[in-house]
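Hey, can you fold this one?
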Amino acid sequence: MRTVKFGIIGCGLMGREFASCAARWCHLIDVDFRPEIVSICDMNENLWGWYKDHFPSIKQTTKDYKELLANKDVEAVYCAIPHHLHQQFYCDIIQAGKHLMGEKPFGIDKPANDAILACVKEHPNVFVRCSSEFPFYPAAQKICDMIEKNAFGQIIEVNSGYLHSSDLDPNKPINWKRMIEINGEYGCMGDLGMHACHIPIRAGWFPKNVRALLTKIIKQRPDGKGGIVPCKTWDNATLACEAVDPNSGEKFPLTIKTFRIDPGEKNTWMIEIKGSKASVKFSTKQPKTLWLMEYTGGEQIWQQIDMGNDLAFKTITGGIFEIAFSDAVFQMWAAFLYELTHGKPIKKFAGCITPDEVALTHHLFTASLESHKNESVVKL
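Sure. Predicted structure:
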């Protein structure tokens, strides 16, 4: 059993999710690797207590991430920090020789991402991946298996999206994700876009062009201190793209949506693929339900399939039970450590997003900003 000793930089929500995965690693079956958290870093000392209470393996707590990077016991780092810090922190982590799981979008903008990518290429022995967990849902993995088998025939249309309604309340105080200097000009695309792009990019369906429609719906918010401040980031983005089916060579429409204000959607990831031989629909709104239509002539009939615990990495949970978000996060972390240990993913769509794939999203989001500004179709 290989033990990978981790440091966590950024002890908020997703840091706790990873720590929870590490605490229940015995839930996985037949793996030869495990994480151990030995160091944590956050400027807010109030976040340290939960970690120290639950993880006696933690020997270092610090406000200075460079102290964590100097710790010889730390082999890998999970870094979950605001976007404007990505370039400096990620490059420092990689240059320190620590393996990295970083949060999207790997840089506040394309120049920052270019710098991170260059750093990755200069350190080929450092394993670097991007966090994106939704394709690890069983229904999503089933769809990915169908993509690998070319089960859809000629692709007719693909729609992918990540939808929130968390910002519908105009009285919700502003936070850093609505501040352009911290979240970046991409707005909702930078924060949500990787989730919507993950499967299309891994499938080879990268947009050849884009016509972007970006909207700022709530233009100012309370600052939490009694004042009102402007919201400068995009709330919603609809990217109308053309992609090419690598199997047929034919173009098809690809629509990518990232919405922070979509009434009724609390936190919904979705994908829809229409093909000449088969079509599918899946949304985390109904996390165990996969809609499938296989066409062989005659009537066109949608089937509703209940997905069980059919995961890329097997667990002790019985096969008839459904999974939730925390289970998808767990699968993503198993994928990260599997590839770190074995040098390749367990299968094509059960591997984490690579730095080169992240770079493709920056090309898309940068082109989308240009498209919206000029009301034009931009080639990629």
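DSSP finds ten helices and 17 strands in the chain. Let me know if you want another pass with a different chain boundary.
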